[in-house]
Amino acid sequence: MCEGSQTAQLNAMRTNYDTTTPAAELDRRTVFHPFTALARHEREGPLMIVAGEGCRLRDDHGREYIDAMAGLWCVNVGYGRPEIAEALREQALRLPYYHSFSSMATEPPARLADRLLSVAPGSMSKVFFGNSGSDANDTQVKLVRYYNNALGRPQKKKVIARRRGYHGVTLTAASLTGLDSLHRGFDLPQPGIVHTTAPSRLWEAEPGIDDEEFSRRLAHDLEQLILAEGPDTVAAFIAEPVQGAGGVLVPPAGYFAAIQEVLRRHDVLLIADEVITGFGRLGAWSGSELLGIEPDLITYAKGMTSGYVPLSACVVSEAVWRALVEGGHDEAFGHGYTYSSHPLAAAAALANLDLIDAEDLIGRVGVVGPHLQARLREAFAGHPLVGEVRGTGLIAAVELVAATDPPRRFDPALRVGPRVAAACLRRGVITRALPEADTLSLSPPFVITEAEVDECVAALRDAVDEVAGELVGEGQDV
Questions:
Q1: What domains can you pick out in the chain, each with its CATH number?
Q2: Is 362 a residue whose pLDDT tops 80?
């Protein structure tokens, strides 16, 4: 066969892909899904979402759902916003991509960085852009290492995170994450990352103690861990203002004041992981602002673009920045991504922040958030399967237990949380069963109405009751 015929045959093979099979079936055959039971997906296939507007989604069979999770805690301004689509179109036509290595720059990331610094807490200086919260937290750990090397402290490298914290799934970010299900099978956590107590009143607080006492106990736990590891080896502490995927854990009053006192005493940097809480989810621009956190480094992602395109940011304090600059000896900083400071992503973020400002969506959270919190507490007051209702702003969770006094967990094999989430889905509401606890979370778009909140809460209550009835029928003691 001549060379031309071989090339033609190869090109024909490359274009011989399937255009007739339904997308859901192609997905089942070909797509490797994250955080998915692989064998079950291989048997049953996906729920194929094809359109969205506001708080509502539509599947390929025409059925509509309220998305009570804003995708994955991120679609803050709602689906189908033409303003963001138009910003992407304009930027794609003008300049769809250029890199940021070797001092090369494009306009949207510069304007976005200036805007982020204008609302960031504390004395923040520079913004490093990435693609996801996971890679941003990896970057934070590298920055902490570079910083201590620049200061001549090569032994000060360990990072303390919290059990039930969530910081991503790359090797280092998954190590920071305090969930065993992200460690099993992957030989994690990596050396140099240790975990302290989660601020979970349900499972960690002694009976009868108030928030101030609980906060002091948690700070004591942290300090004892620092002392055990050696303060000269501990470089940073990373924390979400409100722990998201680990259970929507709202810290007790006085928690961050007590924690920061310990960190300052031992010269330990504070990384605020604002991937979920940034850009209004708690009713303020940042969780740090709301909870009195004074971070040295901040991680942003999700709500920065409302999930329309991937983008993350590491915000660096002036003190850390100066150490990086002065310790670099005018050599190139050896870290970055092909898509760092991507102009399309930055253009989407700017349009998204314009919407949040123009429509006062953070003010809207201050109205509809308390409604969500009140309705959940009313709906589940005294429910025999509910150990705790938690939340603030537009983020909330209902944690289910086998017994309430004292609290006792369900056998994980019962899959209570996932069963409740599936029952909600049958009622046209998308919630999320969080890992390693039978906890159902709600984190809707900021544009959700009070009536839609009521629909979500009613569906969740009905779903919990349905699964409770199933458990009784299975002979479970509930």
A1: 54-77+361-473 (3.90.1150.10), 84-358 (3.40.640.10)
A2: yes
